[in-house]
Design a protein that fits this description.
It is a single chain. The protein is an alpha+beta fold. It has one domain (about 5-145): Sufe protein. Chain: A. It has helices at about 5-15, 65-75, 80-100, 110-120, 125-145, and strands spanning about 30-35, 40-50, 50-60. A three-stranded antiparallel beta sheet has the order 1-2-3, covered by helices on one side. The protein is globular and about 45 Å long. It starts with 5 loop residues before the first helix and ends in an 8-residue tail after the last helix.
Length: about 150
């Protein structure tokens, strides 16, 4: 029987069928993030070409919420200009770090699903935020002129 809340089905789909869950070869950016409170660890792989995020993938040892959040994140940012990715990542990270409200500027059913999950289960905020914070670290290190290859 389907869940009464469509967000549950969407998040579950991303847990069971994670998109872009793989090691990405020939990357020019990568970083690893950890959540020591629950033991989650994620590596995000990027291939930036010109001013666009041409490819993104991730690998993790993590809970379902981190898996779904990373899967949703990769779908939302692939192919977008890096400045748009930075705006989206900062908006979602800010909302997740406070576990409040929503971002209408970058709304999508998948992002809203993760935000709703965190709203219902605030203890899972760090799990949902880990992929976004890790991507934000890569983008900030790239903007600062670092190679971005770490982790």
């Amino acid at each position: 029987m389907a869940s009464a809340n469509p967000y549950d089905d969407l998040v579950m789909d991303h847990i069971k069928n994670a998109r872009n869950y793989r090691v990405l070869n020939d990357v020019n950016r990568k970083a690893t993030g950890t959540n020591p409170l629950c033991g989650d660890e994620i590596t995000v792989f990027l291939k930036v070409e010109g001013d666009a995020l041409a490819e993104i993938a991730f690998q993790c040892t993590c809970c379902g919420i981190t898996m779904a959040s990373a899967s949703i994140m990769t779908e939302q940012v692939r192919g977008k200009p890096t400045h748009d990715v930075t705006d989206l990542v900062q908006a979602v990270s800010g909302i997740l770090s406070c576990a409040r409200g929503r971002s209408s500027k970058f709304s999508s059913p998948a992002v809203e699903a993760i935000l709703e999950t965190v709203k219902r289960y605030p203890a899972r905020m760090r799990c949902a935020a880990l992929p976004w914070f890790t991507l934000d670290d890569i983008l900030k290190s790239s903007a600062a002129g670092a190679s971005g290859l770490r982790g």
